[in-house]
Amino acid sequence: MFGRERIEYKTPEQVLLMRRAGLVVAEALAAVRERAVPGVTTGQLDAVAAEVIGDHDAKASFLGYHGYPATLCVSVNDEVVHGIPGPRVLEAGDVVSIDCGAIVEGWHGDSAITVVLDGAAPDDVDLAATTERAMWSGIAALAGAERLGAVGEAVEDVVDAAEEAGLNGGARYGLVEEYVGHGIGTAMHQPPDVPNFRSRDRGPRVRPGLCVAVEPMIVRGQRFTQILDDDWTVVTSDGSRASHWEHTVAVLEDGIWVLTAADGGVEQLGALGVTVAPLG
Ligand code: MF3
Ligand code: CO
User: Domains of the chain (ranges plus CATH)?
Assistant: First the structure.
């Protein structure tokens, strides 16, 4: 479930380098979010992110990764993750998941947001909000957790609570299982896996130096996915809409730190009763 390969624990100095990468990603996503409106192409959004990353003399993590051709992944509506930016024109009401990674001095940051364009169905707005809440709850769980499995438990609890509250028109959400969060550091994807669901395997111990990307993917229908002929774009099998949120998080001696959040996660985690580590 979690994999049992060696984990790269980071020193506080290394976490500070990852923080620099994280802030570049945060700035790129903020710029892209501003530009994500009807009439803009996903390729134009990619150019915005590439410019911000270039301005900081950082490198895009995704570009060239197993041959991936762009800076961002932009996944629209039934696309879950790994949508390739291009000529597609965004329309009112679209649900747009935007994923960005950057490298500074060899250290990676990775984060994703979902932007719901004006005119969207209320249930689609709820989908993105539920997914974001699930991500923050998963991150908050890391703060006090003994084992990494606490993240998936917290994510699944949020989905259960949302369903019980009658969101999604009273229907079940789907929690995607084929793609999971991951360790991150000198590579974008490292051990351990960070599943978004409950498992009997409690996972590796959470200890200082652990850096992971927490990234739930939630869909309005069934959780099953397929990959399009471009060999990248992951879509829901039933055509239902999807949301993806992601942050890179460091576990430190005195707490956690959200490296790809401009404020380190202070506001969102504070609302969940979690104090952010006072580093940097
Ligand atoms: N943020 C995505 C992930 O975590 C990255 C996909 S990158 C790509 O895992 F290069 F494969 F597109
Ligand atoms: Co990731």
Answer: 12-271 (3.90.230.10)
